Amino acid sequence: MKQLLYITFLLLPFVAFSQDKAAKIQWVTIEEAQELVKKKPKKILVDVYTKWCGPCKMMMRNTFTNPTIIDYINKHYYAVKFNAEGNDTVTFKGHTFTNPKYDPAKAHTRNATHQFTQAIAAVNGRIAYPTLLWLDEDLNLLTPVQGYLKPPQIEPILNWFGSNTYLTVKYDEYVKTFKSALPTTGSNP
């Protein structure tokens, strides 16, 4: 009996690690998403974030770790994380975007806004973080949504686009009848 308990305690960290590793969003770059969508069409979800943004970190910690949200995103979307103030060169729909005013000394603080962020993430001329972008299978912007979203807030949006219901039903009508798959108990905000 002692040996069984000993083996169980030895293996417990490995089991926990393997389960944790499996339950993550499969993030790709915007270039990878463009190639993947050609092979297997899916919508694209882009998380436009910055390294200094508190709500971005909260979204990563609270929303993008929720098993229901992870499962839905991985099944119905190509998920992209994009650093809105980073220095990556990005090619999107044949156009190249850079961050010519990027300052390496400010890599972990507020920095210049990337051209790709300016081109795709502005809402009424304003950029805020985080901003989530929903793109269709042809890389057309469906909508940007700015601000921190908890799992119960993002879930209906993910489903509305992921199920193509947005093509026939207005969002306000959709949410009235939406049935959440999120557990009703739990501490994940």
Report the portion of residues in β strands.
Answer: 15-25%
Q: Which regions are unreliable across 5 or more consecutive residues at pLDDT < 50?
A: 4-20
Secondary-structure element order, N to C? HEHEHHEEEHEEHH
Counting DSSP H or I runs of 4 or more residues, the number of helices is 7
Shape: globular
Average of per-residue pLDDT values = 90
Helix content: 40-55%
- For the secondary structure, the number of strands is 7
Describe the biggest sheet?
5 strands, mixed
Query: Major sheet: order of its strands?
Result: 1-3-2-6-7
Q: Please state the CA-atom Rg, rounded to the nearest Å.
A: 19 Å
Structural category is alpha/beta
Cα separation of the termini: 40 Å
Describe it.
A hairpin with a 5-residue loop joins strand 6 and strand 7 (141-146). By secondary structure, this protein is α/β, with parallel strands linked by helices. The chain has a 5-stranded mixed β-sheet. A two-stranded antiparallel ribbon has the order 4-5. The protein has 7 helices and 7 strands, in the order αβαβααβββαββαα. The chain starts with a helix and ends in a 12-residue tail after the last helix. 23% of the residues are buried. The protein is globular, with a radius of gyration of 19 Å.
